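Late entry, written up from scratch paper. The run itself happened at the end of the previous shift, but nothing got recorded in the book at the time, so transcribing now.
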Amino acid sequence: MNMTEHARADRIPPVYGKRSEQLDLEIELLNPTDRAVDPDRRGRSGRAPTVLVVDDDADMRRYVRRSLAPVGIPRDSVSEACSAERALEALRARSVDLVVTDIVLPGVDGLELVRAMRNRPGLRAVPVLVITGEASPRDARERVRGAGAQAVLLKPFNARSLGQVVQRLLGPRLPPTTTGH
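Output as recorded:
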């Protein structure tokens, strides 16, 4: 069953990615001193955290959106962008608590998006999770760390591993009942 069929069935497939072999789970917080959510961002009581998902693959954006619900981020709290340029437009219009981006995007890549965010005062404190299908985990981690992102997740990944990283990045902002997974 392909991703489109899964999306039609409104189910989260067990693993998202093109490689058929299962890789060891690659989750790493890259800049742990930056990982804490800005206290001002936690002050919006009663509101679910907001997330911007940036990927040129619509199936991947839908997969990430659905995968965030089990950790307390409802679908309507997740916005999407298909490019870094669109992501920056969205970030100018609306603040978010987390950005999840792929590296490979049309035009400006995901690492340039992270660098642009780090150069803007209002976006510096927003944590970024980079998702990548790069063949070399070591190279991916170094590139992502150098851009200023807080975490990297290698494809293929499953909803649970995505949720674990999001919980570590947004723990204080998630509903209390979901942070104990």
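Residues 25-173 form a domain with the Rossmann fold fold (CATH 3.40.50.2300).
(Scratch paper discarded after transcription.)
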